[in-house]
Specification:
Helix content: 55-70%
Order of helices and strands: HEHEEHEHHHHHHHHHHHH
Low-confidence stretches: none
Structural class: alpha+beta
Largest sheet: 4 strands, antiparallel
Distance between the termini: 72 Å
Shape: elongated
Number of helices: 15
Radius of gyration: 31 Å
Strand order of the largest sheet: 3-2-1-4
Mean pLDDT: 80
Strand content: 5-15%
Number of strands: 4
């Protein structure tokens, strides 16, 4: 059984916003026919300039990163609505794996060379310092041999002889980095150490994307050193403290409103003899005498008056006292 340290998702992603809207193909800000041919979200083989398609914007945040906006196109409003419904706001994901296409099917599209296309699709310190972690992660996850770091036969079997031959021919001596990456892409969560390790080697040896390599290096360092977990703990602690404070504030307000309402009910016999405002003022005075920490500000008193007159369960009781609902 593989140690989950190497294959577990270290960061999850939350959907924060989404939006769907119609656009005209070939007219700014709509997509071009050519760009739609390379999308995986829907079939646009019959789409022409002037046709209406639907764009779906999904905003997400992974771990402690800033928000990222993803754009997809759909041929019909129904398909767009289905896509939005499948990614509701608040949805948490990131422990999945898999990809809708084999790399052979996407490399070479979009007018880019194979390495450039991989950088476009999957791109985002001291690299040598994390290589030991990367090799260990790939070995412990069952991707490479712990002895010589060669790809394990089980991985080659999954890729298939024809696919491996294509990789060798397309990417030359660095084909194994692509092979490791595709296997991890389909077997482990994106934020797992093993997937990050494969992506780092892809960035360094195949796509030559120094920016992405540097970013992933820092991410691996943070995860392997526990920084991400510590940051999450601090964030969650702060969030829970805020939630607890908000609950305490709501509970305190409800308690005060109940005390005030009871005092008003006890003064119900004075209705018709003195004004509603005076009864409310007397109830406030008695509430303050009974509850030492009862608010004293006029602003809070006004808010309490509004709450009693408009919010249940106090509204019906308040109206019953002053016979407004009789």
């Amino acid at each position: 059984m593989t140690d989950k340290k190497w294959t577990k998702p270290n960061r999850l992603t939350e959907v924060t916003r989404h939006e769907a809207s119609p656009v005209i193909v070939g007219a700014v800000p709509g997509p071009s026919v050519a760009s739609l041919k390379n999308t995986f979200s829907d079939d646009f083989s019959e789409t022409r300039d002037g046709d209406t398609v639907w764009e779906v914007w999904i905003t997400t945040r992974t771990g402690l990163d800033k928000e990222v906006v993803g754009l997809s196109y759909f041929a019909t409003e129904e398909a767009a609505a289905e896509a939005v419904a499948s990614m509701p706001v608040g949805m948490i994901y990131g422990d999945h794996y898999g990809f809708p296409k084999r790399l052979k099917e996407i490399v070479g599209t979009g007018g880019l060379d194979p390495s450039g296309m991989l950088s476009f699709m999957f791109g985002s310190g001291d690299h040598d310092a994390v290589h030991f972690v990367c090799y260990e992660a790939l070995a412990e996850a069952g991707v490479i041999s712990i002895k010589d770091y060669s790809i394990l036969p089980s991985v080659l079997d999954w890729l298939g002889e024809e696919h491996v031959a294509w990789m060798r021919n397309t990417f030359g001596e660095n084909w194994s980095a692509v092979a490791q990456f595709e296997f991890c892409l389909n077997h482990f969560p994106d934020s797992s150490l093993v997937s990050l390790s494969a992506k780092l080697f892809l960035s360094q040896f195949v796509t030559n994307d120094d920016f992405t390599a540097g970013y992933i290096t820092k991410e691996i360092e943070a995860i392997s050193g526990g920084t991400e977990d510590a940051a999450f703990l601090a964030t969650n602690t702060q969030k829970k403290a805020g939630e607890a404070g908000a609950r305490a504030s709501r509970d305190r307000k409800l308690r005060n409103l109940e005390i005030l309402m009871q005092e008003i009910e006890q003064l119900s016999g004075a209705v018709g003899l003195i004004s509603e405002e005076r009864i409310f003022e007397q109830a406030l005075e008695k509430s303050a005498e009974k509850q030492k920490d009862f608010p004293k500000s006029r602003k809070t008193h006004a808010e309490y008056g509004t709450a009693l007159r408009s919010d249940e369960p106090f509204k019906s009781r308040y109206e019953a006292v002053f016979r407004k609902n009789a």
